[in-house]
Design goal:
CATH superfamily of the largest domain in chain A: P-loop containing nucleotide triphosphate hydrolases
Helix content of chain B: over 70%
Number of helices of chain B: 13
Radius of gyration of chain B: 24 Å
CATH class of the largest domain in chain A: Alpha Beta
Shape of chain A: globular
Radius of gyration of chain A: 34 Å
Structural class of chain B: mainly alpha
Number of domains of chain A: 4
Strand content of chain B: under 5%
Oligomer: heterodimer
Largest sheet of chain A: 6 strands, mixed
């Protein structure tokens, strides 16, 4: 079908294009004029008695030439303007460029065309200029929109940190990134230009009234429509062919064929002549899932009683999510599934999913499961009505209120009139659970409910899950958060590369893990060697730092008067709840965010607030490892080249030396060379984290700033990175600043801890003190493993 | 951000846009070549008469003075007098606007249900026969310039088959609805393609989205799932596109009016430009600009309700 469409498009496009190009060569000398709309020649004569066939041969060139030149001109002006608007850090430049274009977009294009054409002398050049001018605003906007995230994203910031050449940042990174968007759009723009040129010619704008032009012919010969329909229909049809053919062909280019998934296989017919009586609510036997290339889940069996909590743990990619999807009876394209799942005595397959509402699913981002446009109360009432259609309005309201109370959410009208995006992440999560409760779920699957949450929120989630289990609901918890698992799980299932390597009661598995992989997963981070005792001079010193974010027109203060010091070879951890200003502090030190007041000193030498004003050796001395390692790499260049960048740019190494140093560093962080010569998208998340570390080390920094470097990684990968970081700190005498809300990370790395709350330092001190007997309640909540037990400082 | 605050910010922006557009219109019309006084003087172009006309039209005043006068008149609702017919411009515009408004209303009434339904039908089975047919036709039809389509339709239905009147020349639009059929078809051709494709894409996105899957797990299925859970999210881009279409329809669809001889705003504009009737051109442009701003304002408010989290005043 699609090929047929493209073929039709090519044929349709070829006829007018060939006519436009070679038509004038075949037309020959114009013959004598005869009577208007007479019978002479192949198609008769036109309104002034010229041969229509000859006019058709001559009339295509102007349309095509004008449209092509106008499109090219529009791109020539629009793309640089859009890039400038996207790249500039001065707000007024952006405004100055974009506001007038917004205004121009608000005027209908034909109106603009007529006004402009009336002011300029007629001629093909004018027409080119006007059509280009009309296309310009849209092209500028698209370029700006595509380039904006690239020009200010982590990858660009990473390149600015080692002062990458303009050529590699601009054309190399942003240019490659927007190329696809612009190419896809070019077809649409060209069609727009053809449309405008033809319409303008038809209205008699920019062309001589008796010119040989298809659109002009349609207009002028209209008077003879009844006498000589061909003199109008042929040029009109040619223009239609040109436009339709072009659109069919460019539409093809827009959709690069998606990789074909094999047809979803039929789920194995559930052969159950008799329904066995299970004491267990959920029974899974030999569940397996495979794609064409690999096995995702390999023969997993388990059972779960009502009111129990099963924790499924395993590294990323171990098959946790695939198992959950199978329990929901949802098909994943390209995945073949075997084995039997029985829920409450009923088989679950993709063709017969569990009964409506019986299985609730809380995704990792609970906000995604909530209707973004509808008020939360309306949706709750809808679910309640669906469950009990006969209940009256007040009965429904009582049911909803009771359910909200069960998950500790407010029940007042104002809360019910909110939209999901006005709730906090924790509230969204509880709302999704409330939906499941309203629908009488017997099984709840929670996917990584605590990833990226601070300790306070994690405790709330644990309480919530335990409460659900007490109410008789079976809970399956997919997590690599061992604190949560320890707190709530009754059963544990350990997955490793799709296979269940260990399962059993939580207490047994946690106390005596049998399988090697389980032991790795459960291992506590190795204790760090005690820091040297000699007093050290501060290497990095921050004094009275304040910073603000611009939020629309308003300034919002995020840091107030923060001061801290880090000696060489020591590690400072900055902890705090989400939104407390941790990341902004780190970015101010690195020069990525301009501080409002306050100074950053490196070895008692003051640094400029802005990255671009710092000197090269100062840039090299402070390096930053981004939270999202993948986003901080240019996806179009091999990782090795990017790791070599800092040495090349900041240490005057020759490209050969820089690559040599990069290989050495990559080897040190445990990345093989054949991995590093690939593009970033071929590396796993853990590998990219290591590569990002190597890149930060390539300029031989004295201060290394790590922003949540291990968030979202599974435990084994995380251990590797933490050990590596600690080793680097000791060997290279690095001053390390770690931003984290993960107690394990802090306990493993930090010598000194600073606690931020709402942009202010509320507590600070040696790591041992704050981790074990802190005084400030927030510190206790964030860092103590059991906040309740640590209310009083324990005796040493 | 709440809806009232967003609306207030958006309204201020709209006022700014109108002010900007009036300035652009004045500057552009100032630059129109040719001298209105010479045009009006017509057959007797003696210098004394031209000078008299100039004085009568205030053309001897400096440009900024005329701009200020024009603006104050505009605010008072006085659009001035046509240079050619000497009639108040308001009357002329009211006549033209009636035809345009009729055409636009009828088109929108047919367009919205038809295009949204087509898009939803196409999304019902992605890659199915109906989906492929709708998308092939809409890709092809989208690129066709209106005049070419109009001429072909006239040639076939008006001339060859004689089923429908080829133009609306001299006809009372409401008295003979048949004259509206061909213009309506031409006007529908392009918007129906964009809107049905946007609806289809939005529906497919929404149906794949986690929140629709969540609703399905809760047991909500069928038309309820489609209309209440999937459609609202899919409509935000459709509304924006609909605003542009409305804008285009109200701005006087110059080509369609020219081909079918309908005395609407587009015809008025072409006439005014060709006769250098500057006050009329200015009035028309301001009218179109205000319509554009109002339509976009309405669309933005609807879109804000449909996608509350994107509420950022640009």
């Amino acid at each position: 079908m699609r090929r047929l469409r493209t073929l039709t498009g090519v044929v349709l496009l070829a006829v007018p294009l060939v006519l436009a190009v070679i038509g004038p060569l075949l037309a020959g000398e114009p013959g004598d004029r005869t009577f208007p709309f007479a019978d002479d020649g192949l198609l008769g004569t036109d309104f002034v008695g010229r041969d229509v066939a000859q006019q058709v041969l001559l009339g295509g060139r102007s349309v095509v030439v004008v449209a092509v030149s106008a499109t090219l001109l529009a791109y020539l002006l629009g793309v640089p303007a859009g890039l400038l608007a996207a790249a500039t850090r001065r707000r007024w430049v952006d405004e100055l460029l974009m506001r007038p274009l917004d205004l121009a977009l608000a005027v209908p294009s034909l109106l603009l065309l007529i006004l402009l054409a009336a002011t300029a002398p007629p001629g093909p050049l004018t027409l080119v200029g006007i059509v280009a001018l009309i296309g310009l605003p849209e092209i500028t906007r698209i370029t700006r929109a595509a380039a904006l995230p690239l020009a200010h994203g982590p990858a660009m910031e990473a390149m600015r940190l080692y002062r990458e050449t303009w050529w590699r940042r601009g054309p190399g990174y942003v240019g490659t990134g927007i190329r696809r968007v612009l190419l896809a759009d070019a077809g649409v723009r060209f069609i727009g230009a053809i449309y405008l040129v033809a319409t303008a010619s038809f209205l008699g704008i920019g062309v001589a009234p008796d010119a040989a032009d298809w659109a002009v012919m349609v207009d002028r010969n209209r008077t003879g429509l009844f006498l000589r329909p061909w003199s109008v229909a042929v040029p009109a049809a040619l223009i239609i062919c040109l436009a339709v053919g072009l659109n069919l062909v460019t539409d093809r280019m827009l959709h690069t064929p998606a990789p074909r998934c094999p047809a979803p296989p039929n789920a194995p017919a559930a052969i159950s002549s008799r329904t066995p009586v299970h004491s267990a609510l959920l029974q899974v036997r030999e569940l397996a899932a495979t794609t064409v290339e690999r096995t995702l889940v390999d023969g997993v069996s388990f059972s779960l009683r009502a009111g129990e909590i099963l924790a499924v743990i395993g590294a990323s990619g171990s098959g946790k999510t695939t198992t959950a999807r199978a329990l929901l009876g949802e098909a994943t394209p390209g995945v073949t599934r075997t084995g039997t799942i029985t829920l409450a005595g009923r088989p679950v397959t993709t063709t017969s999913p569990p009964g409506p509402g019986t299985v609730g699913y809380v995704p990792q981002q609970p906000g995604a499961a909530l209707h973004p446009v509808r008020r939360i109360g309306a949706v709750l009432h809808e679910i309640a009505r669906h469950q009990a259609p006969d209940d009256g309005r007040s009965a429904r309201r009582r049911t909803v209120a009771a359910t909200l109370e069960r998950v500790s959410l407010p029940t007042d009208r104002r809360f019910l009139r909110r939209f999901p995006h006005q709730l906090s992440g924790g509230q969204q999560q509880r709302l999704v659970i409330a939906h499941a409760l309203l629908a009488h779920a017997v099984l709840l699957i929670a996917d990584e409910p605590t990833t990226g949450q601070d300790a306070l929120t994690r405790d709330a989630v644990a309480r919530e899950l335990t409460k659900l289990a007490c109410d008789g609901i079976a809970v399956i918890l997919l997590s690599h958060d061992l604190h949560l698992v320890r707190t709530v799980a009754d059963q544990i299932l350990v997955l490793h590369r799709g296979a269940a390597v260990e399962s059993g009661p939580a207490a047994d598995v946690l106390a005596v893990p049998r399988h090697r992989h389980t032991r790795q997963l459960l291992a506590t981070p190795p204790a760090r060697p005690p820091a040297s005792a000699h007093p050290d001079r501060p290497l990095l010193r921050v004094t009275n730092l304040s910073a603000a974010h611009r939020d629309g027109r308003r300034h919002r203060d995020v840091l107030h008067d923060v001061s801290l010091t880090v000696p060489a070879g020591r590690c400072l951890a900055v902890v705090g709840r989400s939104g407390s200003g941790k990341t902004t502090l780190a970015r101010c030190i690195a020069g990525l965010h301009p501080a409002r007041t306050g100074q950053v000193f490196l070895a008692e030498h003051r640094l400029a607030a802005y990255l671009d004003r710092r000197r090269r050796h100062e840039l090299g001395a402070i390096q930053y490892v981004f939270q999202d390692a993948r986003a901080s790499f240019n996806p179009y260049r091999p990782v090795l080249d990017q790791v070599a960048g800092p040495a090349r740019r900041l240490r005057d190494a020759t490209p050969e030396q820089a690559r040599h140093a990069a290989r050495h560093l990559l080897d040190r962080v445990g990345l093989a060379e054949h991995t590093a010569t690939r593009q970033p998208d071929r590396l796993s998340g853990g590998e990219l984290h290591r590569a990002a570390l190597a890149r930060a080390l390539a300029s031989e920094p004295r201060v290394l700033i790590c922003d949540e470097t291990t968030a979202g990684l599974d435990r084994i990968t995380r251990h590797g990175i933490l050990t590596l970081l600690d080793g680097l700190r000791r060997d290279l005498q690095l001053a390390v600043v770690v931003i984290s809300h993960d107690r394990d990370v802090v306990a493993h790395l930090a010598d000194h801890i600073v606690v931020l709350d709402d942009g202010t330092v509320v507590d600070s001190g040696p790591a041992d003190d704050l981790l074990n007997h802190a005084h400030h309640p927030l510190t206790r909540a964030l860092l103590h493993t059991d906040p309740a037990a640590a209310t009083a400082p324990s005796n040493p | 951000m709440s809806l009232p605050r967003y609306a207030a910010g958006r309204l201020l922006l709209g006022l700014g846009q109108v002010a900007g557009i009036t300035t652009i219109v004045f500057v552009l019309t100032e630059a129109l070549p040719g001298d209105a006084a010479v045009v009006i003087a017509g057959d007797h172009p003696d210098p004394a008469r031209i000078a008299a006309i100039r004085a009568q039209l205030d053309l001897d005043q400096p440009a900024w003075q005329r701009y200020l006068d024009w603006l104050t008149d505009l605010i008072r609702g006085d659009l001035g007098v046509s240079l050619i017919s000497q009639r108040p411009i308001v009357e002329r515009l009211a006549d033209s606007a009636a035809a345009t408004l009729l055409l636009a209303t009828v088109t929108l009434l047919v367009l919205v249900p038809l295009a949204v339904a087509l898009g939803m039908l196409a999304a019902r089975r992605e890659g199915g026969r109906l989906d492929r047919a709708v998308s092939a036709v809409s890709v092809a039809l989208y690129a066709v310039p209106e005049f070419a389509l109009a001429i072909l339709l006239i040639a076939v239905f008006g001339v060859r088959l004689g089923w429908l009147p080829p133009t609306a020349f001299g006809a009372e639009l409401l008295a003979r609805p048949a004259v509206l059929v061909l213009p309506l078809l031409v006007l529908l051709a392009r918007p129906i393609c964009t809107i049905s494709r946007l609806t289809r894409a939005g529906m497919l996105d929404a149906l794949r989205g986690e929140h629709v899957r969540h609703a399905r797990r809760l047991g909500i299925t069928g038309s309820r799932l489609w209309l209440r859970h999937a459609l609202p999210g899919a409509l935000a881009p459709v509304v924006q596109q609909l605003a542009r279409t409305t804008d285009w329809l109200l701005g006087g669809v110059i080509v369609v009016e020219a081909v079918f001889v309908i005395p609407g705003l587009g015809t008025a504009l072409v006439d005014a430009v060709s006769t250098r009737d500057i006050p009329t051109v200015q009035a028309l442009c301001v009218l179109v600009a205000v319509t554009t701003v109002v339509v976009n304002l309405a669309a933005d408010l609807v879109a804000f309700r449909l996608a509350p989290r994107i509420g950022v005043v640009r």
